[in-house]
Automatic annotation (TrEMBL):
This is DSBA-like thioredoxin domain-containing protein. Pfam families: DSBA. GO terms for molecular function: oxidoreductase activity. Residues 16-204 form the DSBA-like thioredoxin domain. It comes from the Bacteria. Coiled coil: none annotated. SUPFAM superfamilies: Thioredoxin-like. InterPro entries: DSBA-like_thioredoxin_dom (IPR001853), Thioredoxin-like_sf (IPR036249).
Length: 216
């Protein structure tokens, strides 16, 4: 299996899942990598549904101190994050600032038009740019670079900003999140079963197996 795609293999059972996510959520990054591992067992078809978790963040970004967590909560979260990242072989440098993900999410939605592999190249590149390289996903120039290096048109971030179809899609995802009472990301919907937060691989496998057997 390619690192950045979900390749098709006919000998794996087909499983569909919808995922609410945001590129500035480290647990979504870990969850995305974990889904690649799940795809080794199943022909996984993911409906990625981007929603902004901090839409009021200024374009230039802001300090993580602006988030409503006290020191103990922040330390506990960082400890859990480090442990989860280590399970996936990821090293996540300490974040100092939070980006505005609005344009990055629009770019990802636009990338879907170029096919599954193109989307996944961009999808993982955006996570890596933010969490590994510390780049500001609210910066259009950075998004242009990520798009270009992912094999997509450099102009795609600009085109996505004013695309009414993308606006409708994102509004639809937001409405679905409200309908499903999504309180955080990542949130997975395997048929009628909803899983909140990053999940152990064993839980994902068991849930996908039930779906494949028509028990979901």
């Amino acid at each position: 299996m390619s690192e950045n795609t979900l390749d098709e293999q006919v000998d794996r059972p087909l499983v569909q899942v919808s995922v609410f996510f945001d590129y500035i959520c480290p647990f979504c990054y870990i969850g995305s990598v974990r889904l690649l591992r799940l795809n080794e067992r199943f022909d996984l078809r993911v409906n990625w549904m981007p929603i902004e978790i901090h839409p009021d963040t200024p374009v230039e970004g802001q300090s993580l101190d602006a988030l409503p967590y006290d020191t103990a909560q922040r330390q506990a979260m960082n400890h859990a994050l480090a442990a989860l990242a280590a399970e996936e072989g990821l090293t996540l440098p300490a974040q100092r600032r939070m980006a505005n993900s609005h344009d990055a999410l629009r770019l990802a939605e636009a990338a879907k038009r170029f096919g599954r592999e193109a989307f996944y190249r961009l999808h993982h590149a955006l996570f890596q740019a933010y969490f590994t390289e510390g780049r500001n996903l609210g910066d259009l120039e950075i998004l242009r670079t990520v798009a270009s290096t992912s094999g997509l048109p450099q102009s795609l971030p600009d085109e996505a900003r004013n695309d009414p179809e993308i606006t409708r899609h994102l509004a639809h995802y937001k409405a679905l999140a409200s309908q499903y009472t999504v309180s955080g990301v990542p949130t997975y919907a395997f048929g009628d079963q909803q899983l909140n937060g990053v999940q152990p691989l064993a839980t994902l496998i068991a849930t996908a197996d039930r779906m494949a057997k028509g028990e979901g």
